[in-house]
């Protein structure tokens, strides 16, 4: 397939473009930042460029990962977010409809489901962790979430009005850099990421693979939204204990974790404020992340022997 991949110079794009090529696809990367994965240096908000790129390359599928995201909030204006994330998505959807593209995959974010109240967590008075599925009505707390949710709505609208097959992937975090949250300060990066695999993280390889699965299934599914995160061991009935005393819950599922963590000097978060439930992706998309918390423990156990 001839695929237009936006955000091709970024972290996800750099993993996804080679993966798609290894499957035999022709990938045209579009990104304002040049890189080996990017053939068209420019913005999704440049409507003429987008139209030309789709038409001239006979594009059959669009994977739209390019965006301003959370780390950009500090240095960009709200209108920059609207321009890239909303107008940019609209240009791509219009180009898809104009030139008969039959597959559209949009990289969204679980972050848009996190309201101010959920983020405040235990210290904000929450009595239970939020159990998050695609059924909830998001109330995004920042311009990133607002523009991603708007872009999701545009995707849905283009499916309704034009029959464009679209899958929206609300991916959890897969960024490589250290967390911005307070508890990360006391923990090593590897420790933080391991903990997060329990409820809010996936590897970049799994993120790329979810896009491959979506690309394959989108004509069949028509329109759908999926949370993509490593499979959680937790259940909704754990939510009260998770926010009050997370280690007591984790040890029930993984009795060997305290000893393995102790060897590394690692600690568990004392409180877990949300859990992303990726079971819809498993059931309808047939996609499950390969790497989860159990794999980290297996690696720690192997190190110890
Ligand atoms: N990294 C995460 O943890 C995470 C979590 C959830 C969702 N996401 C989403 O995944 C996607 C990829 O994120 P990433 O982690 O690879 O980030 P990244 O910053 O490494 O990559 C984003 C890419 O988008 C490009 N971009 C910015 N403005 C653009 C424009 N106007 N037109 C085209 N491309 C543009 C950037 O130049 C960059 O190369 C984004 O849509 C992001 O919102 C990321």
Automatic annotation (TrEMBL):
Domain (NAD-dependent epimerase/dehydratase): give its ranges: 3-217
Signal peptide (residue range): none
Kindly list any coiled-coil regions of this protein.
none
Q: Which Pfam families match?
A: Epimerase
Looking up InterPro entries in the UniProt record yields: Epimerase_deHydtase, Lipid_A_modif_metabolic_enz, NAD(P)-bd_dom_sf
Provide the transmembrane region boundaries: none
Source organism superkingdom: Bacteria
Q: What is this protein called?
A: NAD(P)-dependent oxidoreductase
């Amino acid at each position: 397939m001839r695929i237009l991949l936006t955000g091709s110079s970024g972290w996800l794009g750099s993993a996804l473009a080679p993966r798609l090529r290894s499957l035999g696809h022709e990938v045209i990367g579009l990104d304002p930042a040049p890189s080996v994965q990017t053939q068209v240096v420019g913005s999704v908000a440049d409507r003429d460029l987008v139209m030309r790129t789709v038409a001239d390359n006979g594009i059959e599928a669009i994977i739209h990962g390019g965006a301003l995201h959370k780390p950009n909030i500090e240095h960009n204006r709200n209108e920059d977010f609207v321009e890239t994330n909303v107008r940019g998505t609209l240009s791509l959807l219009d180009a898809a409809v104009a030139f008969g593209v039959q597959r559209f995959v949009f990289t969204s974010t679980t972050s848009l489901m996190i309201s101010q109240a959920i983020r405040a967590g235990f210290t904000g008075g929450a009595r239970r962790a939020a159990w998050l599925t695609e059924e909830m009505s998001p109330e995004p707390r920042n311009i990133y979430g607002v523009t991603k949710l708007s872009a999701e709505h545009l995707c849905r609208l283009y499916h309704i009005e034009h029959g464009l097959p679209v899958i929206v992937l609300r991916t959890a975090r897969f960024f490589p850099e250290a967390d911005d949250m307070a508890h990360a300060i006391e923990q090593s990066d590897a420790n933080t990421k391991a903990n997060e695999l329990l409820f809010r993280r996936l590897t970049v390889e799994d993120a790329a693979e979810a896009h491959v699965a979506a690309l394959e299934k989108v004509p069949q599914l028509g329109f759908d939204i999926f949370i993509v995160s490593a499979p959680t061991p937790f259940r909704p009935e754990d939510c009260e204990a998770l926010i009050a005393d997370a280690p007591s819950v984790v040890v029930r599922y993984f009795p060997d974790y305290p000893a393995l963590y102790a060897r590394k000097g690692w600690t568990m978060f004392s409180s877990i404020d949300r859990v992303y439930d990726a079971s819809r992706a498993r059931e309808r998309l047939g996609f499950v992340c390969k790497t989860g918390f159990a794999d980290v423990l297996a690696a720690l156990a192997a190190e110890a022997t």
